Amino acid sequence: MMSIAAKLKQIWHTVEKRWMPAYVWETDPFTLWRERILFIICFIAAALGPFVLIPSILLSVSEGLGSVIVLDLAAYLGVVTVLIIRHTSLQIRAGLIFLILFSLGFGLMIILGPVGAGYLWLLAASIIVSTIYDLKAAFASLASNAAALLAIAVFIDNGTLNWNLLNDNALEQWLVMSGNFLFINALISTTTALMLHSLKKNFDKEQLAKAELQQSQARLYAVFDAVESIPIQGYDRYRQVIFWNRASERVYGYSKSQAMGRKLEDLIIPPDMRDPVVQNITAWLEKDIPIPAGEIMLQNSRGEPVPVFSSHVMITNYQGEKEMFCIDLDLTSFTQVQKEKAQMETQYRQFQKMESIGRLAGGVAHDLNNLLSPILGYSDLMLTDPQLAESQKKTVSIIQKAGFRARDLVRQLLAFSRKQTLSVKPVDFNLAVKNFEPLLQRTIRENIRITLALSADPGIVVADIGQIEQVIMNLAVNAADAMPDGGRLTIETSGQYLDDIYAQHRQGVTPGHYVLLAVSDNGAGMDKKTCENIFEPFFSTKGENGTGLGLATVYGIVKQHGGNIWVYSEPEKGTTFKIYLPVAPDHANREASPVEIQAEKVRGTETILVVEDDDQVRQLACTILENSGYQVLAADGGSQALETAEAHKGDIQMMLTDVIMPDLNGKDLYRKISRTHPGLKVLYMSGYTSNVIAHHGILEQGIQFIQKPFNVNELAAKVRQVLDAV
After folding, report:
1. Considering only CA atoms, which of 177, 135, 170 is closest in space to residue 154?
2. What gap in Å lies between CA 339 and CA 337, rounded to an integer?
3. Fewer CB atoms inside 10 A, N or C side of the chain?
4. DSSP, residue by residue, 385-407
5. How does DSSP assign 472-530, residue by residue?
6. 233 - beta bridge partners?
7. 3-class state of residue 183 by DSSP
């Protein structure tokens, strides 16, 4: 319950709010203090005056002192009047109070003489003037009192005053009393005025220092706010935001208006770290145990992790309260660079491993060939010997067949190690695929339908046609094995241009013009771990039925032709192998050249949500779009995309999404997000070809689609096309 003192304080505060001038609550404390003194005097006089005035009037009536009654009533009404005209300036009201008290004191002295309360009222008038005004006013009030006492002395001397207390030495007594009074008056009023003058000077200095400190703080805040690359935040002792610069807005996603006044732990601290952070700050405030600088994982407004190197400083402001400032170095770009570096190192190690295995395979194949030569040679000689018995010929025939199988394995090893002799010539891929299709039809099962999707002019490559056919055959056989219940095998060709950005993200790729040969199936697919090992010799998913050399052979043939091979696969979603062989210099496909588009025609400011489960592809797409001026939101899958779209306060104009993702495919994701973001446009992307995606039934005809890999101009132009479409 509220104490009596607290209740009285609350009542008094209400009275002040009601009766004191409104301006005093916005003025400086010194003026407020003087206004309060005058208000207290007037309010108490008005409130308690009747308790003193009534007995005084009754006594004056009994004594026949009508003039005293008039003086008391006039003084009381004067005080009430000053209280009523509270909106008049402080100096005028203080002057009126002085005149009222001076008149009351002087009048009571004239009427009652030295035995009345006249001295007290004159002294009170002088003190009030000294308090409200300054030292000059104190001297003026002292002079007024001296003049009043001197006038009374003159009245005594000429006999005008007829006090009953007068005697033969009345003038001398009066002068002695007046001198003592004036001395006390001078001492009190001048001391009060000097003390208040000193207080005011100190107060003015303090206000000036405070203003300078505030100005310095404002300049410092302006400098902090101008630092666009380093987030800086300020917090009070309750961890509420008092400063939030523009870099903090960019990194953490909260505007200044959204952040101000909110607590640190409710903004950028992940839930599992909130209690330790609060404890550390409390220990710093109460026990002076500073928080060491170091790396910490914070979060932005979308709940995404933000790695920073954070340092902290605790200061005491001009009000004597502690404030903490956090200076963060955003490590997102550094972390991304480190991540990309690690990925490149992984690719490089894989590349080196494949090279080492290739050299080993080449050496082994060479030795095996030397061993197989006499086996096959002598087998042939023995089988042509007429003296050899039939039972012996049967045994030699088995040996010869085993030798042939061993020879085929050696050839595959040589292909993988790129040490076989090639017979190269210009090859039209479309013609090669068409001529080879009948053999494929006879080789694979009838429940697998072969579909050709050949571009008009993919380009010419310099290659060994027999080796290329072996590549197609091996991939087709693998695809058939992945579709035991039947399915669709799609072979596609097209001209492609791989730019510098794509080459930076792929080990061993040289920018330039390529012919793409894509072999796709809608079979069982593979997981990520399997995809990482499929080109290694003797790695097989077929158990005892596989040699583990089919895809290793494909890899070697492609590399020996100066090309690259990549695989895209998802469990139960099928597999696509993409082979890029360099276009012959004299046969470069003009249509596959990079399209130069004016920068201003493909730029924009719209907000685009990028959804891609592959970190490299997602980062590449975000970089291209951000460099084109777009506002980019990123998500690594369907679930995070839904959360990001829900948390985003503004509109999202377009979504760029992978078609096939582990948790939610692009088509279903678009349907869900478009419910809360009507008018959302979508551009699908995939490592699978558009034909394969269509066969999966995930995309309808006419849907906007871009195939990976894409270069800068292709993606920028396609995004602009989708955004501008009606």
Report:
1. 170
2. 5
3. C
4. -TTS-HHHHHHHHHHHHHHHHHH
5. HHHHHHHHHHT-TT-EEEEEEEEEEEE-HHHHHTSTT---EEEEEEEEEE-SS---HHH
6. 244, 326
7. helix
pLDDT in tens, 225-236: 766 678 888 899
CA separation for the pair 597, 422 (Å, rounded): 40
| Token output for 609 | 């949500």
Tokens at 530, concatenated: 């399997």
Tell me the C-alpha distance between 680 and 676, whole Å: 9
Q: Among 618, 665, 698, 534, which residue's Cα sits nearest to residue 340?
A: 618
Strand ranges for 321-434 from DSSP E: 322-330, 425-428
| pTM reported for the whole predicted model | 0.40
Greatest Cα pair distance in the chain:
183
> Is residue 314 classed exposed, middle or buried when 0-12, 13-18 and 19+ CB atoms within 10 A define those classes?
middle
Place of tokens 């400063």: 243
* Residue 566 in tokens: 């990549």
The tokens describing 314, both together, are 């605790």
Residue from 323, 281, 283, 330 nearest 304 by CA: 330
DSSP-derived 3-state class of residue 205: helix
Banded pLDDT at 418 (limits 50, 70, 90): very low
- Using the 8-state DSSP alphabet, how is residue 237 labeled? T
Whether 556 contacts 536, CB under 8 Å: no
- Amino acid (1-letter code) at residue 395: T
Q: Enumerate long-range contacts of 34-43, CB under 8 Å, 24 or more apart.
A: 34/90, 34/131, 34/132, 35/90, 37/131, 37/132, 38/90, 38/93, 38/94, 38/97, 38/128, 38/132, 39/83, 39/86, 41/97, 41/128, 42/79, 42/82, 42/83, 42/97, 43/15, 43/19, 43/83
Give, for 299, the enclosing helix (H) or strand (E).
Answer: strand 294-299
Question: Confidence class of residue 642 from pLDDT cuts 50, 70 and 90?
Answer: very high
Tens-place pLDDT, residues 437-481: 887 787 788 888 888 888 888 888 888 887 888 888 888 888 888
Asked whether the bond before 709 is cis by omega within 30 degrees of 0, the reply is yes
Assess contact for 651 and 676: CB atoms under 8 A.
no
Q: Is 717 helix (H, G, I), strand (E, B) or coil?
A: helix
Report residue 38: phi and psi, to 5°.
-65, -40
